Amino acid sequence: MRSVVSEMSEEGVSERKACEAARVSRTTIRYEQKEEDPINRWLRIRLHELSAKHRTYGTPFMKAIVCKETGLKLNHKRVERLWGEERLPVPRKRRRRLKVHPLTDRLGAAQRPFQTWSLDFIHHKTEYGQKLKMLSVIDDFSKTCIEVRVEKRFRAIEVIEALDELFWEYGRPEYIRTDNGPEFISELLHRWTEEKGVKLIHINPGSPWENGYVESFHDKLRRECLNGEIFFSRGEAQVVVDWWREHYNSERPHSTLGHISPSEFIRQEKWNTVDRNGLQNVH
Fold first, then answer.
1. Residue 99: DSSP 8-state
2. Got the DSSP string for 26-43?
3. When you count CB atoms within 10 A of the terminal residue's CB, does the N or C end of the chain come out lower?
4. Is residue 227 situated within a structural domain?
5. d(Cα 258, Cα 265) in Å, to the nearest integer?
6. pTM
C-alpha cells in the first residue's frame, strides 16, 4: 500500500486523497518501524540458549530463570511472544489427571522442612540392559530431593542403610510415607523406624496419588534426566543423577513454590536445618 500511495503522491495527488483512494490510514503510511529494544535482542539469544539446555521447559519456567538471572520484571506475554517469533519448540502438553489431594487423612500436610519424607522407587536400564533401581527421598514441605540412590537391587536392609545415612545428615523426620512395596512393608524396616522414633505411613494399596510428591518428582526425573541420557554403568548413572538432583534443588524453578528453587524457598522462609537429634528449629 505504501508504494501505491507513494506513486500517487509523485503524480501530484495529496497524501490525504491518496490514502482515501487506497483505503489505508495516513498513520499507517507515516509509521516508521523503530529499532528493536536491546533487551529483546538479548532475550531472543538467551531464550535460544535456555531452550537448548532445558528442552522440557515452557515459557513460565524460562521467564522465571531470566528474571532470576537479570533481576528484570518481565511480562509473561513478552516472553511468549518472543518465544513464538523465534519458533522455539513448545513442550507437549501432558494429559491432566483428576486432581486428588496427595495426602491421606492419616497424615496431615507438612508444616516445616524435613518433617515428612516420601519414598518410592523408579526403574531404569543401562545401555547394556542392566537393570537399575533408584530410591528417591523427597521432603514434602520444601520439595527438596534429599536423595536418589542408584543400585542394582534394593532390599529392606539397603533401604535402612540409606535412611540411616540421611538421618545423620538431615536429622530424623517425624513421618515417612511409602507405598506397599515389599522393601517398605518388611518387619525389619518397621522395627528400625520404631526404634528411631519415626512413624512409617503406608498409602492405600493401588492409590499412587496418595504419594503424589514423589510421583511428581519421578515424572520430572524421567522427562528431564533419564530420557535424555545413556548410561553404561550404575556408577555413571549415579553421577549423572546426582548432578541433576543438585540442579533440581538449587536452580530449577518450582511452580508450587512460586517459581523458585527448594533451596531458595527454605532460605526465604528462614528455616533452619534439622539438628542431629531430629528436632526442627525455626528462627
1. P
2. HHHHH--PPPPPHHHHHH
3. C
4. yes
5. 9
6. 0.70
